[in-house]
Specification:
Two copies of one chain form a homodimer. Chain A has about 400 residues and is an alpha/beta fold. Helices cover about 35% and strands about 30% of the residues of chain A. In chain A, the strands form four sheets. Chain A has an eight-stranded mixed sheet, with helices on both faces. In chain A, strands 14-15-13-16-18-17 form a six-stranded antiparallel sheet. In chain A, strands 4-5 form a two-stranded antiparallel sheet. In chain A, α1 links the parallel β1 and β2. The longest helix of chain A has 16 residues. Chain A starts with a strand and ends in a 5-residue tail after the last helix. At the A-B interface, α1, α2, α3 and α4 of A face α1, α2, α3 and α4 of B.
Chain lengths: ~400, ~400
């Protein structure tokens, strides 16, 4: 008897018919002898509908009330799925985040889970019930409703799997697994059978947005095996787990990329301690997320400092950075908002030399200019012209034989 | 500083614009120096939308899950109203039934309130906040979500007013008060300024469906002054309260009526103890609500037993009663499903003789035949042919000078 946590996203429960399909799938898994805890998102479109209502009444609704509002979305789906299961004479019971209870801090709209009480769930499982939990939500010490932020249902599922010591946490979504790269760019892209947490983190943050990053971090921290599967077709999906010593690891697992980036470079910054925080502090305070950060060795007592942001944040970032540059007595700010980033990801990279060189060589052969380079232990990212992105991804996919 | 509980129904919060109107009204009342606790229903149509989803998945959804589902309706409106108030810089806070907490028994879909914890609400009021509570819902000892049944938001409002010892419980609805009778039938019908609980109970149960009966019972039990007002136009509405000795009471307060009744008579029932329950027991077990019950003095060791039901339940009731009649050895079952009931209501009736006679005389003058009569201390009901109903109501309204 294995305990499995399964999470179904908004598209999977987007209509009454799809909820019925999910019910069938769950019953099949129960009949295979599994204890099941199901985590659900709101029906697709519902969160946006509720946000639309909120925004008509308040241009900046408070976090607390927004959470009261948005948490109804999952509460509807858990009740509906229960009803669908009971119609098939399968015993099920639903719990809101507060009922479980999933205790969080009080940061409304992006709360963090502190503790999960597994007593009720264990008692229900012992009675042979399927337990259905509202994703994305919890409550704070005072009983205020909190939500975990967009995609938070993945985190709920992983946290429950950790608390219950589940054998596996399965994330059902509209893709059938994690691919070597985006199949829309490279038609030979191949589904990966397995991947390490670290690789998935690099893949996710770089644009292959299958799973919420926080849920992968969580899974890694508590060593919860995570599987990405399709709600709509059968298949083993992609298993994301810790690296196992005996695993014959491919050198490169996949190629991730980000289209909509912009970069800002402050030229001739006086090279003294605290420069980085003087430049990035004001950016962070405006809640602009910074992606790559590069600072080269100083020369002539000044240095050049470059960072990239999402293209939507470009103008805001530029305004801030220009002020900072004046204050620092920097030479100039230069920018490019037509860039893209492409990254090779793979734990095998650690023990293989020459990966970077193959990458640079491949791009050179295609006459693609590299404007920035940044590396980590299991990833190499380069920034290229936006127009070269597809060609870059395709040529690298072939060069590293990822289609095999 | 008076504490007032105000309840707004589904139509009053049915759209974003209407929620904004409600917010304005509330702010005005706060500026007049009142402490306010607001109880809301779901947006009109929302409960039916949710029920529709449920019925597509399960032809008989379990009470527990239905309550999880339906309680989201009010949770949405309380958050939205809070946002609308905060947009106007008025401090407000929302609570679900579980958060307050409103403790109920565990009879899902028609739970009864056991206890209300007023601590949080009092603390918020002391901070100058407007407190907004989801109507219609509570939770049981185990933390399961419960609902109070259709119209239960009125009961929530009255129960909160009782718990908080509010000066008044105001029910905002789409009519501007309680009328002497239905203005669609008698154009001279007049809005009543005040009414006793007993009169309102008789009016409500007889068809003037402005307030949920249970909420009036509750108000009467805890002596909460209840006021029915329009959400859409100004005016004092109708105050429903205990009878005051000094009140110069009109003899008759109003005329209530029910159109869609049907009556069933079992003729020649052997007159022995237990007959009434033998006839009505099987009816009650099928959840058919019985309205009037009349049994005349026995003659010749048999009696005739008549009761009326809503016309929708007529066929079901007939099937059951025919079986019972056979079992009891009764002579025959006769029926009429084209009847209507008209009732005079008024506490003044108690001290005035001759009301019944004036009623019968008035109907006789109009050549209206009376087929059943039933009386209580403050009400006289007669059953007439459906086709005579409007004429009966109009002529009685004039005879008792209710337009003045």
């Amino acid at each position: 008897m294995a305990l499995i946590v399964q999470k179904f996203g908004g598209t999977s429960v987007g209509t009454v018919d799809r909820i019925q399909e999910v019910a069938k799938k769950i019953i099949k898994h129960q009949q295979q002898g599994n204890d099941l805890v199901i985590v659900l998102s709101a029906m697709s479109g519902e969160t946006n509908r509720l946000l639309g209502l909120a925004n008509q009444l308040n241009d900046q609704p408070k976090g607390r009330e927004l959470d009261v509002l948005l948490s109804t979305g999952e509460q509807v789906t858990i009740a509906l799925l229960c009803m669908a299961l009971e119609q098939q004479n399968v015993e099920a019971i639903s719990y809101t985040g507060n009922q479980v209870r999933i205790l969080t801090d009080n940061t409304h709209n992006k709360a963090r889970i502190i503790e999960i009480d597994d007593k009720k769930i264990r008692a229900d499982l012992a009675q042979g019930r399927i337990v259905i939990v509202a994703g994305f939500q919890g409550c704070d010490e005072q009983g205020n409703i909190t939500t975990l932020g967009r995609g938070g249902s993945d985190t709920t599922a992983v946290a429950l799997a950790a608390a219950l010591k589940a054998k596996e946490c399965q994330i059902y979504t509209d893709v059938d697994g994690v691919y070597t790269t985006d199949p829309r760019v490279v038609s030979e892209a191949r589904r990966l059978d397995r991947l390490t947490y670290e690789e998935m983190l690099e893949m996710a943050s770089l644009g292959a947005k299958v799973l919420q990053i926080r849920s992968v971090e969580f899974a890694s921290k508590y060593n919860v095996p995570l599987r990405v599967l399709s709600s709509f077709k059968d298949g083993g999906g992609t298993l994301i787990s810790a690296e196992e010593p005996q695993m014959e690891q491919a050198v490169i697992s996949g190629i991730a990329f980000n289209r909509d980036e912009a970069k800002l470079t402050v030229l001739g910054v006086p090279d003294h301690p605290g420069v980085a925080t003087q430049i990035l502090g004001p950016i962070a305070r405006e809640n602009i997320e910074v992606d790559m950060i590069i600072q080269n060795t100083a020369y002539d007592a000044t240095t050049d400092f470059t960072f990239s942001v999402h293209r939507n944040d470009f103008q805001a970032a530029l305004t801030i950075v220009q002020k900072t540059a004046d204050k620092l007595g920097a030479k100039e700010v230069i920018t490019d908002n037509k860039i893209a980033k492409v990254s090779l990801v793979g734990v095998g990279m650690r023990s293989h030399a020459g990966i970077a060189n193959t990458m640079f060589e491949t791009l050179a052969d295609e006459n693609i200019n590299i404007s920035m380079i940044s590396t980590s232990e299991i990833k190499i990212s380069v920034v290229v012209d936006e127009k070269d992105l597809d060609l870059a991804v395709r040529s690298l996919h072939t060069a590293f034989k990822l289609e095999q």
